[in-house]
Fold:
Amino acid sequence: MNSGLYRKLRWFAGLCMAVVLTSVVQGECAPAKPKTGGTLTVGMELEFRGFDPLKANFLGIADRNVIMAVEERLFDMDAKGNLVPELALSAKPAKDGKSWTIKLRKGVSFHDNTPFNADAVVSHWQRLLDPKNRYFARYAIEPIDTVQKVDEFTVRFLLKHPWAPFKNALSAPQSFAVFIPSPKAIKEDTLNRVPIGTGPYMFKEWLPNDRLTVVRNPNYWRKGKAHLDSVIFRPMPDMQARFASLQSGESDVIQTDRGASIVQAREDRSLRIYTSDTGGAYNFLFNTSRPPLDDARVRQALAHAWNQDLLLKADYKGTLPLAKDPFGGLINCGDSAYRQYDPAKARKLLAEYGKPVELEMNHTNTPRGKEAGEIMQRLFKEVGVTLKLTPLAEAQLSKRGIGGEFQITGWKMMDFEEMGPLLKGNLSSDSKLNFGKYQNPKMDALLIKQEMISDPKERQKALCGVAKLINEDAVFLYGGGRRFHVIAKAGVKGIDNIRHGVIRVSDAWLDK
Amino acid sequence: MSGADGLLLDIRDLTVELRSPGGLIQPVDKVTFSLDRGKTLAVVGESGSGKSMLCRAILGLVPSRGSIVFNGHEAGRLSAGVMNRIRGRDIGVVLQNPLSSLNPVMTIARQIMEPMRCHLKLSKRESREKTLNLLGAVGIPQPHERMACYPHQLSGGMRQRVAIAIALACDPQLLIADEPTTALDVTVQAEILGLLSRLQRERNMALILVSHDLGVVAGVADDIAVMYAGRIVELGPTGALFARMRMRYTRALFDAIPRIDEPLQRRLPDIPGQPPDFSALPVGCRFAPRCASAGEICHREYPPLTADNADRHLFACWFPCAGTEVGR
Amino acid sequence: MVFGRAATVVWKKLLHLLLVVLAVTLLTFVMTDRLPADIAAEISGRGATAADLAEVRERLGLNRPVLIRYASWLGDVCLGRLGNSLATELPVKESLRSHLPVTLELLFLSQLFALLLALPAGIITAWRAGSRLDRLTGTFAFACASLPNYVLAMGMVMLFSLKFKLLPATGYTPLSAGLAANLKGFLLPALAIALVEWVILMRVLRTDLIATLKEDYILLARCKGVPAWRILLVHALRPSLFTFITVLGMQTASLIGGAVIIETIFALPGIGRLLVNAIFAQDYPLIQGTVLLITLAYVLINFLVDLCYGLLDPRLRKVADNG
Amino acid sequence: MSGNGQKYLLQVENLIVEFPSAQGGRVHAVSGVSFDIKAGETLGLVGESGCGKSSLARAIMQIPPPNSGRVLLDGVELTSRHNRELREVRGSFQMVFQDPLAALNPVKTVGESVELPLRATGLDKKIDVRKVAYEAFAGVGLAPEQYFDRKPAQLSGGQCQRVCIARALISRPKLLLCDEPVSSLDVSVQAQIINLLHDLKQLRGLSLLFISHDLAVVKNISDRVAVMYLGRLCEVAPCTGFFLAPAHPYSSALIAAVPRPDPRQPGGISSLLGSELPSTITPPSGCRFRTRCPHAQPLCAEVQPELLEISPDHLVACHFPLHEEGRC
Amino acid sequence: MADLGRKPGITFYLACGWLALVVLCALCAGVLPLHFTLDQIDSDHLAAGPGGAHLLGTDAMGRDLLVRLLFGSRVSLIVGSCAPLLGLVVGLLLGMPAAWCRGWSERLIMTATDVILAFPALIFLLVFTAILGPKLITITLGLGLLLSPRFIRVVRANTARFREREFILAARIGGAGEVSILLKEVLPNIMGPLLAYTLVVTGYVIVVEGGLAFLGLSVPSPAPSWGGMIAAGRDVLEEAPHVVIFPMATMFLTVLAVNLLGDRLRGRYERS
Structure:
């Protein structure tokens, strides 16, 4: 029962252009005046990995929620892509665009009473930038050369070259680097199990597989925030158990992507559903380096044999959007030459290929992975393709995916709002992250073009070109777009913003 | 029989009916006898003749018809609770196999004390004292040390002595000993029989001694009842019976015993065939199929249990033996 | 000489148990090594490259041969060190310490419920074997035994938690938060296990008790005029408990690491889930530590069962009797 | 029966059987027993239960072989033979057990059980096993048509013992060991079996080792008697002399303990044997009987008496043998 | 427990009848005139209730429940019968010598038994299926091996009872070899209780297979198994309970029937 969700969103933190398309809130408008007190229990999808960037490597979907409660960023980013000051007051780029000077907030201290100052920021960033430390996602912040202390409350980020996504690098909640931990905790090497930051809540205890508790920070610098006495984060990998805990009252709010729960919650007047769409997609990778999937006709045939609609209907009960491109609606590319379900066409393409096609797919050993596999198996069978299913534990699936030991494998594209860098990593011929081993000079050209061009319209065109080529060449299959769901009791307020699946407990309060 | 005041147990037409795979059977069929206080009755017969079932019927452990009058009370009318009180208090029981009839996980002291504490409501100390006396009385050396023993730590003979001590725990008026020596060595058998008759005399108990061996009971019984296929076929005072065995079965049973006072390598006069199956009893005399002198009537009609003359020696045989004295 | 023999018996037993522990842990090492999963991939995440994985493996010492890793692990265990989890870097001891109470409480409560059901039912059905009550109990027991505990758990959650909202559907409340809350959380999972397990306990008890009730010493007890309840509880029960204790021991031992599904359905942080997660992640130190714990528990329970035999039957107290 | 020139069928020399006890320690079941049986002779072996009679019988049968000592059958040593060689000569010495029901496989028909020795030795390929088995059934007085295909549970104890005898005799053995073959049987059936053994002995010239605790039975069937006590032989003598004048105090006590089926001559009580059999794990030093012997002297505790001939063919192991004091 | 020692009652015949039906279904699943194949997706009827074209309704993926139940019985029956049989065979092969030979071989076998019993079954199954792939044969083999120590113990205990029995000695005296004694004298005697135990284990294994499905370790798709259907149906338990109820009821009745038969058999051997 090690959930397939284990890995759901475990990728390196990225560079994002902050464009959020939707943040739909169903339910009545929150009353103005938050109430203080109470304990909020949050049902998480996964057990926490840890909070030291060097040890945990990346933020899982559950970890994001905790770290956001305990630690803070220099800036938040609003829906329009503007920086919103948090621990910093302002950020000014140099004229040449190769450095940013950032003024820090004064009078803030960490939970362990270490004062927050330039040293805290510099030591944290320098630690991640130091090649010796082998910070796993260092390449994602590679354009940053160094971080300097200017004075006690001013730091300067020196860049190797002008870098547009720098603002994302300072604020994206998927990234470990943005959260400033206590320098003392780093020095004492306790950070991984005991996160210490400046945030509204202080870490209290972490009982593995059971709960992680945080309590209100009485000295929080932002008065009027942190309404709750404490928050309990409870990892519950079993989807049904998580929803049951909400229904029977052990949880107040849960993360979920289980269609049945969402559909059921819609009927339940005591529950509210919050959703947030973003870039990325669930997908099925083809290993294009080996026959028969090295032949585009076969891949195209499979794309026509595949019925994403059916998957979304049967598996997700229609709670996920259909994905035709990896942009989650943030960029409008039309139909992107998406290959519709068309068995006749698929058969024709296969006939052209001429040889019998037998394939194997790796999927997670979860009900969800199994179901997707079984649907695909049946659909492929209809066009005469035999699909063998191999259920694997998450770690196994990852290993085989990374090692290229697969023909088809269930996969996910991470939830970025700016998909350019990720696409480049995943699809460039020479990229280490190109797990499907896809080689196409035309694709390479498009990917380089989208990186170099600064004109937004041209850039969008290039990205749409990539999306179109993905479909034309059938590089992989889509398994639904990314949409985060959070279900909460009606009494839980102030959690309307769930971008990237994060329940921002600093704003949350209970109206019981 | 001697006066009514001496009468302890009076059984009339006792019948036990049981369900078996072969249908309804009657392992005890219209058994009638009585027993005076302080007297010994031996019930003798082959295995399967209904001896043990008769004992259980007297104890009320199997459903039975007919009347059992014990000590003036009609036991058949007594409730299960009262029967429970009579069992163990007024009637003591010794079973055949001392290896299996003692609880292996209880000390012998506890097993002996249990009926005292249940029936006589003695305190722990009183019952301990009494147990010590009893152990001495049944001839167990070093009773103090043996109290804490478990049955497996004792030899077969010692265990049977313990079993007797249990039976005597509440000073019963009647002791039923169901083949108390069959599982024992000849040497021990003699001791146990001696012990039983000594205790019976000392305590003025009545004793029902069940055995398959006429020889074993000869020395201790006042009366002997011979059972065959669920019925008493001969009943009489030991002396009279041994003097004149009338029923041919009794005679055959007696003759089949190998005897140490007989000459060497004598061919034993055995009884041919097997005792009948209860589910397929022969018509008429039940022994007739194995009887050398059976006549036509034997196969037709069951002989009544009668006496030749007015004496107490009863037998059920159409063609009784002439009545020569047995023995040398 | 007698003492010498007793000592030999104890030594032999201990040697046997030590051998079991060693064999189980070695087997675990070898088998988990054959798992196609990779802790390096787990640690590195999906974006990792083959070089990253190799680097992580090097760092964790996963490149060494299995037997060498086993030997060094064994050496550490002898020194009382179980190491840290590779995935979380949490000391394995701490993980076990935090998960064990849940498993122990679940185990204790489920076996308690099972006993509470099995003992009276076994005794009554044996006493009244063949009666209508016996057949009714038997049928009910069979119905229980034929239901998988996961189905039972699902059904009970739907009924008691979601419909009537009597009991929590998930989660574990530490004892520190109050006994009532703690017990409430364990009620359903313990029942789900107990309702299936009591049946086999009851059946072996009934069978053995029926056999015991046919013994001569029970007949003698009846002849002694001992009341029925005393015959059952004092005379017959104790000698009839052997298979019962054995089965109870085996069930208990298998529950320590084996209640995964129940723990998952009720989101209980028990040893079973810890182990499965560790296996899926191929987190060697954690797997080894957990298996060591489970094996030790098995060995301990076996030892206790052996001890119980001696308590139940004086004939088996080999050592003490030889004065 | 005397004469040194006569061939010994069975020679047992200094046989020792020991095994670990369940309670710890070693049981000294048989401690240096030597005797012999001539062709056509019947030796009765008597002793209380626990004296090592059955262990001795099994050691002679090599199930399992004794710890030390030799067993010679017809001059051929059995003890040194390997399993396979032993199996080849098994047919010439056979055994009958005490409990006939336990000695038959409950799931097989008795016919199959009887055929087993022939099939096991591969004779079924050469001869008509079924015919031989039918003959064997007839030879023990069972109608083969009626009983051949029955399961043991469908037969009575006596019939089962007949089947066992048929099985033992089907391989035409020269020696038959009977380990208490009648002690679990009723008197009437006991007589049948003893008579059957008598007949077979005469018909086939069998040699018998007849083990029993009942001296009366032994007297009836044996030519010679050997008395065993705690793993050792006390006395070996021809029946005639033995019962008239036992030389060992233990023999005398055993004879005195035999019950006599005569109300006027109760007997059967022997004060000699009141105390318990000592432990076989730690047997007494010197003469093992000394703890229960009325005539024990200090010498008895120190020196173990050897089995010495006091008159022709009459051996006794006692420092102070009785002279003409025995009864009968 | 029902009707011990009596003539077979109605429950006995019902149990036999049900099992016969299940076996028949498993055998004939391929030739029955069914409207759907086992993996055919009816996208218009997702998690549809019973009635209409789908007699028992469809599962969350729109597959016909009846068809899947019929085919699922194959898996449950194969695992449920083969795994215990494998355990039985291993148990006989190792348990009888262990009881017979004593000494070091017994100690070795019993230590190995203890090792497997102490070894967390999950690791064994996970590794086993991870290496050999989650196939029907792998699961059957794995479960059979896991069960074998229990069988070894039962066989050993049952065999040991006969070690010193007189009819065994009699056979030995008759000249029978040890192997032939084990096979011809002991085996027929222990077969009865062993078969009864095997039946009880069969019920247990059918249930366990379902548990494995919960862990994603059951038979590979498209072959359905009852346990897999229950595990998958849990996702839609609230809105379409029939998806779980039908396979659950089938499994329940089958296990119940097997248990009843096993108990009857056991009762028979206990009495004799």
Remarks:
- Residues 68 and 74 of chain C are 10 Å apart (CA to CA).
- The radius of gyration of chain C is 24 Å.
- The mean pLDDT of chain C is 84.
- Chain C has two domains: 2-78, 96-322.
